[in-house]
Amino acid sequence: MKPVAVRLGDLSIGYLHSLADAVEHLGHAAQPLLEHYGFDAARLAEPRARLSIPRYMHLGHAATVLTGEPALGLVMGRFAYLHRLGLAGIAATQAPTLREAARTLIRFEALYASNYRGRSSLAEDSSGAWLRFHSIGPYNAYNRFVVDSVLATWLRQLGALAGTSLTAQALQIEFAAPDYAERYALEFGCAPVFEADFNGLRLDQQALNLRNPLYCPGTWNELLQLCELELQRLTRPQNMRDRVIQLLGPRLHGREPDMADIARQLQLPSWTLRRRLGEEGTRFSTIVNETRRDLAVAYVRDTELSFGEIAYLLGFASAEAFQRAFKRWLKHPPGEMRRTLRRSNSVSESIK
Predict the structure, then answer these.
(1) Which of the listed CATH numbers 3.40.50.300, 3.90.580.10, 3.10.20.740, 1.10.10.60 matches domain 240-351?
(2) What are the extents of the domains in the chain?
(3) Residues of 28-59 as b/e, b for ≥16 C-beta within 10 angstroms?
(4) pTM of whole model > 0.70?
(5) What angle do CA 81, 83, 84 make, to 5 degrees?
(6) What is the pLDDT of residues 17-70, one digit of tens each?
(7) Distance between start and end Cα atoms, the chain
(8) Are 256 and 315 in contact (CB under 8 A)?
(9) Contact between residue 53 and residue 6 where contact means Cβ atoms under 8 Å apart
(10) Under DSSP, is residue 210 helix (H, G, I), strand (E, B) or coil?
(11) How far apart are CA 349 and CA 352, in angstroms?
């Protein structure tokens, strides 16, 4: 079986403009760094251009090392603008309230970002709402940057819409408190809870009800229509196999998903799901195996995670079980693949 090119997630290269601004703000040249990672002026000007989340992690880590600023992701929030998120961001700039802007960013997230772990969400209740973000874990210096930049960006973007400095009612972070933990209260206006169940910031009703002085009803509705059309284009009906794969990623952590669980998510009886997959010439167990294999290659190739961490993320009982499966799939162990890739990258770097 030959693995396919699976992405752990990607996002609009608009995020790189905010990263570059933060690097320049800290007194360093951003252009050489971006070009080193393949993002020259022509690439940055491409419509709908995306970069993989692992590449964003590596670029962010390199920028953190360059600037000596461990809280670089938080600093990025100061340079976040909605229009850098493309069509969905432009639509949010015309929303009547912060609530509608937040709904727009979440509703049309697929237009500017995707993550195999799942979509961001807006959980509303009678006293406010949580904006939640899913990240690729376990956490290290590479992906903490992603969480910091996304949450800080949301807060600044929404505050700018109403022309105010917005503070979060509450802040939750999945990872343990980093060395720069005191910086969160300065950026978000509240003390964070670390090692929480999810990454998210909470806004109260007063903040959500803030009005957008630039709201124009006709423009707002036209932009929503354009976003819906683009979303339909991106998410047009898939075959059953692809729909199952989309649901598997977030459910692999620490266990092997069962078909009954996936069938419930698809609102189908298990026997119907089995029959539909059979009509497409495949089985649920085959899809699980192939998805694990393709994600395993992506993790080994694109991240710095240990094999024990990858084993957990893919539902294996141990690192040894994962390594045996990897060797069965690819005919060589994951350590050999990672060493080969690193040697190749080192040669490429020396040629540049």
Answers:
(1) 1.10.10.60
(2) 70-234, 240-351
(3) bebeebbeebebeeeeeeeeebbbebbbbbbb
(4) yes
(5) 70
(6) 999 999 999 999 999 999 998 899 899 988 888 888 888 988 999 999 999 999
(7) 34
(8) yes
(9) no
(10) coil
(11) 5
